[in-house]
Specification:
CATH superfamily of the largest domain: MetI-like
CATH topology of the largest domain: MetI-like fold
Number of strands: 2
Low-confidence stretches: 1-13
Number of domains: 2
Largest sheet: 2 strands, antiparallel
Strand order of the largest sheet: 1-2
Length: 321
């Protein structure tokens, strides 16, 4: 009897302990499951919109690129022939290379000017800084069409402001958008002007996010503005530089309005950028498959370049102030 009672005593609390341990294991899981459900519900609208407006059009464009697809005739399956034709078209390859040259003119210029402007605004008084921020942001709200028309007037051979200005330095009047060598840099100037506003404000936000104590410590060590910029500002703004470099590069290569309105790709295709090249084929060719294939190849080129930039300039976690 004693042994049985001891066994009963020893085994009596065990079911209760087992239940308690199971409850302890289950309790942390319930909030986590609720958090996952909440996250899925919040992500669902974005995923749906992404599927409707990005993933489905991309998949359908891949499907169309495999056909001699037309609005007026029955489509014919041709496989990867459109891609082969585009890749062997020297005009398409030249337009992509021209777009890369255009981006190499625009993006570094915008970033350097915006960085210097943001550094200037940071050290100015509140009223002057507000005035400069508003002034530099004005081009951002002006459409590319209006900007193109304005700069066409500026570049006029006779009566244009550009030739009037260079005349002060004894330089002869230039056909800015009529010269094969000058046309691409000429349309790069309004592109720089359009991108300067938003880039400057993003740069300024990054500069203001850097703790001032870092600069104070550097000044105590005798570091001048150049050393502070190299060893403090640039490393801490690496993520911002990466973002602006990627978005600026992709946007510059895909520039469409400026070459279309200012030069229509001329003279002698010297400003025929990839999007304008694809648009011309879409406008004059009854078969859409070629244009879709060219657009997809441009997508691959831009994606590869973006991936290369990401790999070269690795982003870093934010530094707490």
């Amino acid at each position: 009897m004693t042994l049985i009672s001891r066994g009963a005593r020893g085994s009596g609390p065990q079911p209760a302990d087992t239940k308690t341990s199971e409850q302890r294991r289950e309790r942390p899981l319930r909030p986590k499951r609720r958090d996952n459900v909440t996250a899925y519900v919040m992500l669902a609208p974005v995923v749906i919109l992404l599927g409707i407006f990005v993933i489905w059009p991309l998949l359908y464009s891949m499907f169309v690129s495999l056909y001699d697809w037309s609005f007026y005739q029955e489509s014919v399956f041709v496989g990867f022939r459109n891609f082969r034709v585009v890749l062997t078209d020297p005009q398409f390859v030249e337009s992509v290379l021209r777009g890369l040259r255009f981006a190499l003119i625009v993006v570094p210029s915008v970033m350097v000017i915006a960085f210097l402007f943001a550094s200037l605004v940071k050290h100015m008084g509140k009223r002057a800084a507000t005035l400069l921020k508003v002034s530099v942001y004005i081009p951002t709200v002006i459409s590319g069409v209006i900007t193109s028309l304005i700069f066409v007037l500026i570049y006029q051979y006779s009566g244009g402001i550009a030739n009037w200005l260079v005349g002060f330095f004894g330089i002869e009047a230039q056909a800015w958008i009529g010269d094969v060598k000058l046309a691409l840099p000429a349309i790069a100037v309004p592109a720089i002007w359009l991108g300067l506003g938003i880039t400057s404000l993003i740069m300024l936000a990054g500069l203001l996010d850097i703790p001032e104590s870092y600069y104070e410590a550097a000044r105590l060590e005798g570091a001048n503005w150049g050393k502070q910029t190299i060893y403090i500002t640039i490393p801490l703004m690496k993520n911002i530089f990466l973002y602006l470099l990627i978005t600026g590069f992709v946007g510059a290569v895909q520039q469409f309005e400026l070459p279309l309105i200012m030069t229509n790709g001329g003279p002698l295709d010297s400003t025929l950028l990839p999007n304008l090249y694809i648009f011309n084929h879409f406008r004059y060719d009854i078969y859409v498959g070629y244009s879709i294939a060219a657009a997809l190849l441009l997508f691959v080129v831009l994606g590869s370049i973006s991936a290369g930039i990401f790999k070269t300039l690795n982003s870093e976690k934010a530094v707490d102030g």
